[in-house]
Amino acid sequence: MTKDHVEIWNSCLSVIKDIVTVQGYKTWFEPIVPLSLTDNVLTLQVPSQFFYEYLEAHYIDLLKTVIKRFVGAKGKLEYRIPVDSTNTFGSITLPSANRNFPKNPIGQPAPERLSSGPINPFVIPGLKKLQIDSQLNENYTFENFIEGECNRLARTAGMRVAKEPGKTAFNPLVIYSGTGLGKTHLCHAIGLETKRLHPEKTVLYVQAEQLSTQYVTANKNNNRPDFINFYQMIDVLIIDDIQFLAGKAGTQDVFFHIFNHLQQNNKQIVITSDKFPSDLQGMEDRLLSRFKWGLTADLQSPDLSTRTSIIREKLHDNGITFPEEVVQYIASNVRNNIRELEGVMNSLMAQSLLNKKAVTIDMAQQIIDRFVRNTVKEVSVEYIINIVCEYFKITPEQMSLNTRKRQVVQARQIAMYLSKKYSNASLVSIGQQCGKKDHATVHHACKTIANQLETDKQFKVMFADIEKKIALS
């Protein structure tokens, strides 16, 4: 039976996921949407021209390999870039380098557009007024962001910022929390509401790691002034996961100047982080002090009432009903974060629809047991360091020492490996917290531990004891 484009791309992703880093996969492959497979040409939708150029520059060999493996020897790749201009939608179609077409290097003229639309900000920066793709997810609105005690301050501040961007005391607005509690949803909601109320404003959502990659590319092509000029023209700049700038001195320096310009010109800045600003490692003090100029608001784990409201809202949106006792059971037993709650709900709704059976508490219990047990929990690097140090009977300060003592080196390498597995921190951030090491040292440590787990049975038993303590946290 002939496979369709979605199945083919999922097969490609299964290979890609085992090769690239977790963050690389999330940043550069999860956003891709397979559109069609026609005459051995797999068409993929990517978010932007910059995204296309980055894939072609860094992952083209990998893409060639998986495309030919799953599409066939004649397999080819084509990209589609959406264009969003107010109420008009179009797209740009670009060939991949594996179709024997020349790539479009950054700094050269972009390929001819197949439809009219805004200029992409990452290709031609520096113009006085641009219509840009704000990179906002239309599904993340204030309407479906359920308010509760856990998020009331941040949500209220976000709505105030959207109504009067740059004119409130909440500038910058810094939102922080652990994973899966709604930071990204809230900042998209702020952006969408700002665009609705102030269509003349230029709004841009960008992930911190994406910002850093753009800066590196601009710097390499001697376009640093254009890069700065472009970002200084944004009216509402939303930076998600600012912790990924940790240890990146060049990006922090350029962001410092962008921040100052926007602030001084009453432009709005919204930032999200996985922890309180002063707890961020590897960030310059001058940036941290500026993050405190406005309002810092946290998102906490939702209470029972909020979890119940989230479940009911999701059921309503999908036109499905669950018995009230099932709703209460789910709300009472899935407490960690909203992402986990939504995962359980999606699984239950799928089972109910596919099997054409009413959802029962027994069915909910089976899904929750399986889903929660198989979900890798995210914990902080600091917590992992403390667990490892406790096991080796050393202090975190001793682990950070520049020493070759086997016990200390091994503890540090294990902490790095487990931090990469269980936290959402970048390699740079992990290195900073594990003795101010660089990302290459973290990468080496992870490879060393992986090799030991494969070859040393005694080490594997010891490692399992440490990992068990983290998994039970």
Describe this structure in words.
The chain has 473 residues and is α/β, with parallel strands linked by helices. The protein contains 20 helices and nine strands. It has helices spanning 5-19, 22-28, 49-58, 60-70, 152-163, 183-197, 208-220, 224-232, 249-264, 285-291, 304-317, 324-333, 338-355, 361-374, 381-392, 396-399, 406-422, 427-433, 439-455, 457-471; strands at 33-38, 41-45, 76-85, 88-95, 173-176, 203-207, 236-240, 268-273, 295-298. The strands form two sheets. A five-stranded parallel beta sheet has the order 6-7-8-5-9, sandwiched between helices. Strands 1-2-3-4 form a four-stranded mixed beta sheet. It is globular, with a radius of gyration of 24 Å. The two termini are 46 Å apart.
Radius of gyration (CA) equals: 24 Å
Task: Indicate the mean pLDDT.
Answer: 81
- How many domain units? 4
CATH class of the largest domain: Alpha Beta
Strand fraction equals: 5-15%
What's the assembly state of these chains? single chain
Contiguous runs where pLDDT drops below 50 for at least 5 residues: 84-92, 97-130
Shape: globular
Instruction: Kindly identify the CATH topology of the largest domain.
Output: Rossmann fold
- Helix vs. strand class: alpha/beta
Q: Largest sheet at a glance?
A: 5 strands, parallel
Number of helices: 20
**In angstroms, what separates the terminal alpha carbons?**
46 Å
What series of H and E elements makes up the topology? Answer: HHEEHHEEHEHEHHEHEHEHHHHHHHHHH
Major sheet: arrangement of strands: 6-7-8-5-9
CATH superfamily of the largest domain: P-loop containing nucleotide triphosphate hydrolases
CATH architecture of the largest domain: 3-Layer(aba) Sandwich
Task: Bin the helical content.
Answer: 40-55%
Give the strand tally: 9
